[in-house]
Design goal:
By secondary structure, the protein is of the alpha/beta class. It is 43% helix and 16% strand. It contains 7 helices and 7 strands. Bound molecules: NADP nicotinamide-adenine-dinucleotide phosphate. The site of NADP nicotinamide-adenine-dinucleotide phosphate has 27 residues, from α1.
């Protein structure tokens, strides 16, 4: 049985990734941070449709000690793939940020995904093929004012995936980044209708992305036939910025 863990399964993009992967035959760990109910409802929805596959909610706050990360990974059944679709952002000038908020953002978006990759590596290596996908961002390629730390974490994921992919390529483990542009999810709920419209006018395709514009590419990267593509960042932006 193919099994993947989707970190951030309760997010706007994460949920669509889970639906797409379930449709492709994957059993899934549905990781959540605070939204236990959302993870449970998603598990029920998927099980109703794909009763021969497993859908298991698992909780982890990425702002925890290393020992808890190790324990979390030890308790998992073997997985063939990990998708990192969790993430946070914070808008504002760097000069106004609290140091603790900077640390938190870097931990959740970059440091803990790297540590979990290291911890998952032994079990991923045991599979005949395995996959890691990180959700990056167009801002990892073109830095965004008022999101400088966020941009740094996403640029960091891009470079990490490129380097790490070269370390593990001979083990049939690929590592890639899917980097969305503007996607209609909770992450952008703070924006007014007017700001959303202004962004839309800048996007050549003429609309914001929805979750399954992004999940399609994750599903494709997890396919066994995608084994020759590794270390890449694929920008899924409707032609915006990059
Ligand atoms: N939306 C966009 O326009 C956009 C554009 C480019 C890139 N991205 C990237 O795509 C990914 C998904 O974004 P999204 O729009 O789907 O975000 P979202 O709807 O806000 O979902 C965020 C996810 O991150 C999880 N999370 C939050 N704090 C966490 C913590 N402390 N520890 C572990 N997990 C935590 C949340 O879990 P709970 O809900 O359970 O708390 C949720 O599953 C992110 O990496 C984001 O940076 C998004």
């Amino acid at each position: 049985m193919k099994r993947a863990i989707v970190f951030g399964a309760t997010g706007g993009i994460g949920q669509e990734i889970c639906r797409d992967l379930a449709d492709a035959g994957w059993s899934l760990y549905l990781h959540y941070h605070s939204n236990a109910q959302g993870a449970q409802e998603l598990a029920q929805e998927l099980f109703a449709k794909y009763s021969k596959q497993d859908f298991m909610p698992v909780q982890l706050d990425f702002a925890v000690r290393d020992t808890e990360l190790t324990r979390f990974v030890k308790n998992l059944l073997p997985v063939n793939a990990a998708v990192f679709a969790q993430g946070i952002t914070k808008y504002g000038f760097l000069g106004d940020e609290d140091l603790s908020d900077i640390t938190k953002l870097i931990n959740i978006n970059l440091t803990v995904p790297i540590k979990l990759t290291k911890l998952l590596e032994p079990q991923l290596m045991k599979q005949n093929f395995s996959r890691i996908v990180y959700l990056g961002s167009v801002y990892g390629g073109a830095g965004s004012a008022l999101e400088s730390v966020y941009s740094a974490t996403k640029g960091g994921l891009t470079r990490f995936a490129q380097a790490y992919a070269r370390e593990v390529a001979s083990n049939n483990l690929t590592a890639n980044v899917i980097a969305p542009g503007a996607v209609k999810t909770q992450m952008n709920a703070i924006f007014s209708e007017e700001t959303m419209q202004e962004v839309q006018e800048e996007i050549p395709i003429g609309r914001w992305a929805v979750g399954n514009d992004i999940s399609y590419w994750v599903r494709t990267l997890l396919d066994q036939r995608s084994g020759y593509l590794t270390g890449q960042t694929i920008y899924v932006t409707g032609g915006w910025l990059l």
